[in-house]
Amino acid sequence: SPPVPHSGGRPPPRKWEAIEEAAEYPESIRGRAKACSSMLMAEAVAMGPEAFRRHADGPVLLRNASDGWKLMEWSDELLTEQVGDAPMRMLIMPADVHPTIDAERRALVEPAASNVFFADYLKLLDRLLTTEEFAVYVAQLNLLRLPALLAKVCPPSALPADRLSMVNLWVGGHSMKNGLHFDNYDNLLHQISGHKKALIFPPDDMRHLYYGPTPIRRHTFSLIEGFANDTVHETTRQNVALINVFDEDVATRHPALAEASPSICDLGRRTLTLVLTPMPTSPLISVCAEASLERSPISDSLTHRRS
């Protein structure tokens, strides 16, 4: 069995309806969010960068973006064979939302971390498929360390290859939710399997989203006792919002959110989210990515340096 925290007994299996319901944003956000525009990847390439930028109004979903990629043939068996003995960093949390908010300390609480082999992590996802025992997540797995997997990734020919700086893999379980944050890089998010929703705000909305210097605390656990009762201060970050966008009362608790202009991108298999940056000096996006209703959603992120 993989190295995971003791959970004190497994709860009964989750019903699919509960999983589906948990994978939605509150009505106060969902009810007024725009859907991302969409087109075929081939159409975007044929249009050319300048025409595409004029055409796009916010984030764009590019369909069939992973056509011909060898990684579309990935399976648990193939991954176990090729990189099953590769060590990686697994995040572990008591619930499927991270980070969570510590209102008393006005801090965000990040998951605990543990090293695990890739093959054991895949087994653990199966174990957690139907329970709320705890939640696990692999983020920013650098494929430059795993050439057997990197060889299956084909960045779009329209992108400048000399500016590609990172290729990271994310693997999470059902209903996994990631908190509101912004990245300082231009990102392309490919959805390889499963289903994900991304909540995206334009850079001008920063003043409505409760960003600022935020203390970061982290869960701790032991293999015998499980999660500790208290968390440990780790650092302070500027790129995470002190707001829970999954809270049904988020509009009441954070009234400035009503002035923001959300979009929701619904990513299925073989889609790519492209977010254009109108001002290169601004944070690219504010994103809350919610991983899927399905087993083992896998995402691949291509990060480009700005010119």
UniProtKB/TrEMBL annotation:
Q: Domain of life here?
A: Eukaryota
Residues in Cupin-like domain copies: 58-267
A Pfam family annotated for this chain is Cupin_8
Concerning SUPFAM superfamilies, the annotation shows: Clavaminate synthase-like
PANTHER family per UniProt = HYPOXIA-INDUCIBLE FACTOR 1 ALPHA INHIBITOR-RELATED, HYPOXIA-INDUCIBLE FACTOR 1-ALPHA INHIBITOR
Question: What's this protein's name?
Answer: Cupin-like domain-containing protein
Lineage per the UniProt record: Eukaryota, Haptista, Haptophyta, Prymnesiophyceae, Prymnesiales
